[in-house]
């Protein structure tokens, strides 16, 4: 399967999963309100941090070593054994400190924290195996399965009156189903069950001792602000902030699909010393990282308030937060491609240094800016710290790989987004003045549809590179995609 097609399959799968989650979150926000959602996302944030200690970079190490194509079974089994042992140790510690965990969360949820951690670590190792075996598209397809199962179970539990507990139960069950399916698919790639030797564990450790900070960076980008906000602000504001964050994250899906798809390919090419092909992949990855985030930023600035109103009136206060978080995700989309390449070419030490800059800056800025500016400070801290890390990561990668930043292609995306923004702004003004539809949800859906159409048609007209990419990867021909 072509890389573009693999990225599209993975993206569409993740898009479907996120869309299902998006609809479910609207339902839960309207039914339960912001406070229960704040507790729910606080638990997810806490588990995400604990999962860093649970993996310590071993899931990334498994992905890297398996993708190289040598002794795959030994590395897979070694990785699973290491992560299982770490999970047991952390779980015992969580249960011993149950009163403190429940006090921080503001809800008796310690047992669910352990269950969340188990399914999260299990899912991480299964994802690593699937990507390592070059089954990125399969990994992507499993995402809507997990989300769909979670959503159905959560809705059923909430309707049955379980409330917040229903959200917890559905989350665990949704992950468990996908872990079992994914593991069964990955095991079919095993030629046998050769037990790993000491050198396999040592090889995983040598890679993980640097790559673990990449997991920390990812978790900090997603949840540091939520974790610190848990100290300074009430659960209601955490709920509103988390909704804004989820909307912003929806736009980074395609960049994530590119990173996941390109990693095993860059890894294999790097091991074969094919520098020219690695450079080409890096430039392609950077060309399309902002493909959805750039128009998402323009559109979010114009219709962000209407979009958040869908969740309920109390969520409108997060409109400015939403815009800043989209900016943070846009910066992150480029930074993640560069770090992904550093890890893929077996330079996790340099990725480690760039991640140190982010981790230290993110933690310091979050505590400082949240203390002075509240939740707005959290959003700004995230954007600033990831921007600094991007500069450092770019410096490291360019010292190894002679690649050029595709400024021309990125500029064309901005021009297409501005054209889209003018049309969408006119639609908002028309609706505000004459109430043509008179329905907020219908207005948002229509404006998003019109905006997306204008953006992609304009970009097809402006960008020969985009036309060529579309032509190569679509299963059918469209006239505008031809040069």
UniProtKB/TrEMBL annotation:
Name of the protein in question: Flippase
Cellular compartments per GO CC: plasma membrane
Pfam entry (one): Polysacc_synt
Subcellular location: Cell membrane
PANTHER family according to UniProt: POLYSACCHARIDE BIOSYNTHESIS PROTEIN, PST FAMILY PREDICTED COLANIC ACID TRANSPORTER
Domain of life: Archaea
Bilayer topology: Multi-pass membrane protein
Record organism: Haloterrigena alkaliphila
Keyword terms, alphabetized: Cell membrane, Membrane, Transmembrane, Transmembrane helix
CDD domains assigned to the protein according to its UniProt record, in alphabetical order: MATE_Wzx_like
TM region positions: 12-33, 39-62, 74-97, 112-136, 148-166, 220-241, 285-303, 315-334, 354-373, 379-397, 409-428, 440-462
InterPro entries cross-referenced by the UniProt entry: Poly_Biosynth_Transport (IPR050833), Polysacc_synth (IPR002797)
């Amino acid at each position: 399967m072509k890389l573009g097609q693999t990225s599209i399959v993975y993206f569409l799968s993740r898009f479907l999963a996120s869309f299902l989650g998006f609809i479910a979150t609207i339902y839960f926000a309207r039914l339960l309100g912001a406070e229960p959602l704040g507790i729910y996302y606080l638990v997810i944030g806490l588990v995400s941090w604990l999962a860093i200690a649970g993996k310590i970079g071993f899931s990334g190490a498994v992905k890297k070593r398996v993708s190289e194509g040598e002794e795959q079974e030994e590395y897979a089994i070694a990785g699973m054994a290491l992560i299982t042992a770490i999970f047991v140790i952390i779980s015992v510690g969580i249960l011993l400190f149950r009163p403190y965990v429940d006090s921080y969360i503001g809800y008796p949820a310690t047992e669910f924290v352990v269950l969340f951690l188990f399914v999260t670590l299990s899912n991480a190792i299964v994802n690593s195996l699937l990507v390592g075996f070059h089954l990125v598209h399969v990994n992507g397809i499993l995402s809507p399965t997990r989300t769909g199962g979670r959503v159905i179970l959560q809705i059923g539990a909430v309707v049955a009156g379980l409330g917040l507990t229903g959200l917890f139960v559905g989350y665990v069950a949704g992950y468990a189903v996908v872990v079992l399916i994914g593991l069964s698919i990955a095991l079919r790639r095993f030629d046998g069950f050769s037990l790993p030797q000491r050198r396999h564990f040592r090889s995983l450790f040598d890679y993980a001792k640097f790559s673990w900070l990449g997991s920390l960076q990812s978790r900090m980008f997603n949840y540091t602000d939520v974790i610190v906000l848990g100290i300074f602000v009430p659960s209601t504001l955490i709920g509103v902030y988390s909704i804004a964050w989820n909307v912003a994250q929806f736009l980074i899906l395609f960049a994530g699909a590119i990173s996941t798809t390109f990693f095993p390919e860059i890894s294999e090419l790097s091991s074969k010393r094919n520098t020219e092909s690695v450079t080409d992949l890096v430039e392609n990855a950077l060309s399309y990282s902002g493909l959805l985030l750039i128009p998402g930023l323009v559109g979010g600035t114009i219709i962000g308030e209407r979009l958040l109103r869908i969740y309920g009136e109390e969520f409108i206060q997060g409109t400015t937060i939403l815009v800043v978080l989209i900016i943070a995700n846009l910066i992150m989309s480029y930074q993640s491609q560069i770090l992904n390449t550093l890890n893929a070419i077996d330079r996790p030490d340099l990725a480690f240094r760039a991640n140190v800059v982010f981790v230290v800056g993110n933690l310091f800025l979050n505590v400082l800016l949240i203390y002075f500016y509240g939740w707005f400070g959290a959003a700004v801290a995230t954007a600033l710290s990831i921007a600094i890390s991007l500069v450092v990561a770019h410096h490291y990668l360019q010292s190894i790989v002679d690649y050029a930043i595709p400024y021309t292609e990125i500029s064309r995306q901005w021009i297409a987004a501005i054209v889209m923004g003018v049309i969408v702004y006119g639609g908002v003004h028309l609706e505000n003045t004459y109430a043509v539809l008179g329905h907020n949800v219908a207005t948002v859906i229509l404006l998003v549809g019109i905006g997306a159409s204008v953006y992609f048609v304009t970009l097809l007209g402006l960008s020969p590179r985009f036309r060529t990419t579309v032509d190569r990867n679509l299963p059918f021909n469209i006239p505008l995609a031809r040069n």
